[in-house]
Design goal:
Elements (H helix, E strand, L loop, with lengths): L12 H31 L5 H9 L3 H5 L13 H12 L27 H7 L16 H9 L7 E8 L5 E5 L11 H13 L6 E6 L5 E5 L18 H14 L4 E7 L44 H15 L3 E7 L7 E7 L3 H11 L2 H14 L6 H14 L23 H11 L9 H4 L22 E8 L2 E9 L5 E9 L4 H18 L3
Parallel strand pairs: 4-5, 5-6
Antiparallel strand pairs: 1-2, 1-10, 3-4, 3-7, 8-9, 9-10
Helix pairs in contact: 1-2, 1-4, 6-15, 7-10, 7-11, 7-12, 8-9, 10-11, 11-12
EC number: 3.4.16.4
Pfam family, one: Peptidase_S13
Family: Belongs to the peptidase S13 family.
């Protein structure tokens, strides 16, 4: 699915100011409540990214919900900002009247229903009504979900799990231990494994090194698929910046001509995913720019160059030429230990990369993070090693992986298997206040009706209350994430369906099931 550009929402500046004024007192009260706890933690720790996150985690599962305004760190494209801008730009009432009166809802006839009012969202986050509530007050979860999940649109095999993230209590389960094809919900496991292995501060670094006495310049791939050659890097590592820094370093050495090679040996094994050539994924290599895309897209399916590493090196040579460095291309080579590093550029921290991967369902980034997890775990950085490393890291966290099979990091491989139970366990672990380094797994989940693969969904349902990772393959529809229910509880859910014949009908049923959880106050 191609994710629509969100930049036009930024035009809602004046209305955003008015909305900010309205919610400022609410946010101030919420911030006041957690500030002492954050301050106490800050006094005892060094200022690393995960420790700032740990401070935020003392607000309990408030940050774990991460609905709309609580998401962070910000995506480099401004996507999180766009969520707020869109809500303001619509200027419609939500579940409560925002001052227009009963006679003027501000909603055009036939238009999608507005996102839930700020009060309901903040209550779910623990911002206006104290701690997240755990006391149920509604119908039995089975009475609500059973009729929905028996819909023929979900095919002959399906499974579901719903857990209260505050208490750990399972509210609903059917087929929870049955391994099914997870599709892109696999990325939740990849995210948890990568953050566990590498930590949220880890960055992916691309280098330019000069071999002594040979005049050979080697562009060394650091396994960063977000490396960009575009003029506006948007906070990502820039190939243009690397070229400028490299040219400056060469000039200081009096070097104006080099032989250019490129090194992709960070990864091992086949670069071709089992699905073969596909617009959902470039060849998996340690060196690429803009994920090998041949158009100006930043996410979703797109035509790819056949050899992303060679194309990145060709682009790098051209950029060096703009700075007066002449190059002769040699091809692939391995940089020696004696090579001098001339320049480097690094990706955003892993916390931001995980959010990007989940929000945009970025397959290239998922496969890269799986390989980095393998390297950090002492496994070969190929498909097999990455699969073994993901399993080992989940087991390290005490998660039960019985029935789970990983064959890639993205979920494009139909041989992957996960259980509904494991998916909700992953979300529960990510919400654990004792594991703040995993919080990006929750904040990166697309927001219903606002971001990523859920941008165009839930227009008439639980927009803003559901955050979930989608999964779609032929005959497979999955959905796993979190939802704030009417009592302010934060729930984790996982729905998997196989043998579906109408993907849109199956998707609709799964969305209705998540919406039902938001409205029922289930026990």
């Amino acid at each position: 699915m191609v994710v629509p550009e969100l930049r036009p929402w930024r035009s809602a500046g004046p209305r955003l100011v008015r909305a900010a004024g309205a919610v400022r007192p609410l946010l101030a009260r919420a911030a006041g409540g957690v500030a002492p706890r954050v301050a106490r933690l800050a006094r005892t720790t060094a200022p690393k990214t995960w420790q700032y996150t740990a401070g935020a985690a003392t607000a309990g599962l408030a940050l774990a919900a991460g609905v709309v305004t609580a998401a962070g760190p910000w995506d480099s494209t401004g996507q999180r900002t766009a969520e707020r801008h869109r809500a303001v730009a619509q200027e419609r009432t939500g579940g409560a009247d925002h001052g227009r009166g009963a006679g003027d809802s501000g909603t055009a006839p036939g238009a999608p229903r507005p996102a839930p009012s700020a009060g309901a969202v903040l209550t779910g986050l623990g911002g206006t009504s104290g701690a997240v509530k755990a006391a149920p007050s509604g119908r039995n979860a089975a009475d609500v979900l059973d009729p929905l999940l028996k819909d023929p649109a979900l095919g002959s095999r399906h499974a579901a799990s719903v857990v209260d993230l505050t208490t750990g209590e399972r509210l609903y389960g059917t087929g929870v231990g049955v391994p099914l094809v997870p599709a892109s919900t696999t990325k939740i496991a990849t995210a948890v494994a990568a953050l566990t292995a590498l930590g949220p501060d880890h960055r992916l670094t691309t280098r330019a090194v000069l071999e002594p006495g040979t005049g050979e310049l080697v562009l060394v791939g650091g396994g960063d698929p977000t490396l960009t050659a575009r003029k506006d890097a948007g906070g990502l590592a820039s190939l243009r910046t690397l070229a400028a820094r490299t040219a400056e370093a060469l000039e200081k050495r009096g070097v104006r001509r080099v032989t250019l090679s490129y090194d992709t040996t960070l990864y091992t094994g086949s670069a071709m995913h089992p699905i073969g050539v596909n617009e959902n994924l470039a060849a998996v290599t340690a060196l690429m720019a803009d994920e090998g895309r041949t158009d100006d897209s930043a996410s979703g399916p797109a035509p790819r160059v056949p050899d992303p590493a060679r194309e990145a090196a060709r682009t790098f040579a051209g950029l060096l030429g703009e700075h007066g460095i002449k190059t002769t291309t040699r091809g692939p080579a391995r940089a020696t230990d004696r090579a001098a590093t001339l320049a480097t550029v690094s990706s955003p921290p892993l916390s931001a990369l995980v959010e990007r991967m989940l929000t945009n369902s970025d397959n290239d980034l998922a496969e890269a993070l799986a390989r980095h997890t393998a390297r950090a775990s002492g496994e070969p950085a190929g498909f097999d090693g990455a699969s073994a490393a993901i399993t080992a890291r989940l087991q390290q966290l005490g998660l039960t992986t019985k029935g789970a099979e990983f064959h890639d990091g993205s979920g494009l491989d139909r041989a992957d298997r996960l259980t509904a139970d494991l998916l909700t366990d992953l979300l529960t672990t990510a919400a654990d206040p004792a594991r703040p380094e995993l919080r990006p797994v929750l904040t990166g989940l697309p927001v219903a009706g606002f971001t990523g693969t859920l941008t165009s969904r839930y227009a008439d349902g639980a927009a803003g209350l559901v955050r979930a990772k989608t999964g779609t393959l032929t005959g497979v529809n999955t959905l796993a994430g979190t939802v704030v229910d009417r009592n302010g509880r934060l729930l984790a859910f996982a729905f998997l369906a196989s043998d579906t014949t109408d993907p849109h009908a199956a998707q609709s049923v799964l969305d209705r099931a998540a919406t039902a959880l938001a409205t029922c106050g289930c026990r």
